[in-house]
Amino acid sequence: MGLISHWGDLPQHLPPGSTEKDLQFRYNDVDASSPLLFSVFPDRTMNHHFSALTVIIAALAIAGCSKEVPQGPHPFEPNLVHAYKYHVSQGLPMDQVLSDADWTVDSLLGDANEMRLNEELAASEEDLATVVDFEQLKIGQQLYIDKQCYSCHGYTGDGRGQNAGLSNPYPRDFRKGMFKFKETELNSKPTREDLAERIRNGIPGTTMVKLPAVTDEEVQALVDYVIYLSWRGELERALIDDAVLELDIEGGDRLINPSHQNSTDEEEKELFDESWDIALEYAADIGFAWLEAEDDIVEVELPTDIPVPSSGTEFLAMMQGEDAAALTASVKRGQEVFRGKIASCSKCHGNDGKGDGQTADYDAWTKDYTLAIDIKPENRDALIPLLARGALQPQNILPRNFAEGVFRGGSDPEDLYRRITVGIGGTPMPAVTFVPGEFEEPDVWHLINYVRSLGAEVAAKNEKAAAEQAVAEEEQSPESEEEK
Ligand code: HEC
Ligand code: HEC
């Protein structure tokens, strides 16, 4: 079981101005017999009154000393933040719950050394064995290291690798099972192709860049691994939530008691089986949601009566051609809708689409450990116990500034149509609501033309540079050498 946390990089996540006391809190504030603390600091006899410097040196030593690192893949870490937030908000003792949840996840989906699907799940009618290619996971796990994914997304997919703190937005925490840029309905999982597209080409305008020289097989193996991490993480969260909602944790209820698995006591065995069945159902539901994604694709049909350019370059060209008048009229209509009361895009994106409207909101990943437990994200003092357990410092989510000419989820008209009609999962960006006679479906195309117009020149420059880069890479690739 992976109750190991690499606290080596924690100090950077504490708020600026954190004091020695904040660092020491970790010893004083947590029950010294806690298995969480124990796993983090194997030496339980550690003096409670170490200086902060000693703590940092010790932490760096744990992180940096290769002798201490166990052989084999980095173990999956428990979701300390998700468990401990219920301690912070409700005073619940969460150590046992977290440990039981992780035993269950390991039993159902394997651990970092042996990633496998539990037999009962594999035998299910829903083809859960096809959610990911378990045979390929080892390859995906290695690529996740080789291609540096772990440096941002963390070994466990918790979104807090060593480079995470420098990124805005933060790298995705896969464990929430929620993704932003996809061709499916808002609450559906992304398709494999959605993930493959992001992994292959990066997410423009963020720290996640295009992967140089990557094969389709490698991308598919990475897709499998991301889904696997997400499945594990979402299951762990579901089990923890279930315990908080359904059990009397303080009264000693267990999420599951592994030692009763083969108990001869009928009552104990029955209780175990009941818990086990619930866990199986959660795991199956999550796996099934991934299988269903393909059925939830939002189909898009381009209009025949509105010109819709598909890039900045094309936009500028069309403005010089025979569609110029129609496109100009479309942009004008788009601006009107954008600023209008009903669509109210300008409320967040600002009157001129510069992203300067509502800039004080947070994304769902941040709200999860702040507003969801009635802590204001600005209240850094109240957050310290969670920051110390791996929560990232809240950063505001900014509406897109269209003048930058960058669309993160793809710049094809179809991509933008889905972003606008479906919304963007985990962010304040809502789905549209049409009002007959005022804001109707064709207006979405006008909106797309309007937002593209705002950054068309910058986009056209970027497109030209990207095309030149592609040609240069083509010339340098070994394959084209052979051709010569
Ligand atoms: C330099 C940091 C960095 C690296 C390296 C990186 N990512 Fe990301 N990744 C991000 C950021 C930041 C986001 C979130 C972007 C956003 O929210 O707009 C992200 C988002 C994602 C998403 C979610 C997309 C969505 O629609 O929600 C996936 C999947 C992903 N990354 C996979 C990978 C994989 C696989 C690798 C390795 C090949 C990788 N990333 C490498 C920073 C990184
Ligand atoms: C409540 C605030 C809010 C409203 C209202 C809103 N947006 Fe957004 N929008 C956002 C935020 C926040 C993002 C950035 C999400 C992210 O990528 O993390 C965004 C992103 C976008 C993107 C970028 C997609 C990409 O791939 O980069 C487009 C296009 C967009 N919005 C269009 C619109 C349009 C058109 C409207 C009106 C119909 C609208 N938005 C209304 C908050 C809003």
Automatic annotation (TrEMBL):
InterPro entries: Cyt_c-like_dom, Cyt_c-like_dom_sf, Cytochrome_c_Oxidase_Subunit. It holds the Pfam family Cytochrom_C. Residues 471-484 have a biased composition (Acidic residues). One of its GO terms (molecular function) is heme binding. Residues 135-230, 329-455 form the Cytochrome c domain. Keywords: Heme, Iron, Metal-binding. It comes from the Bacteria. Residues 463-484 are annotated as: Disordered. This is Cytochrome c.
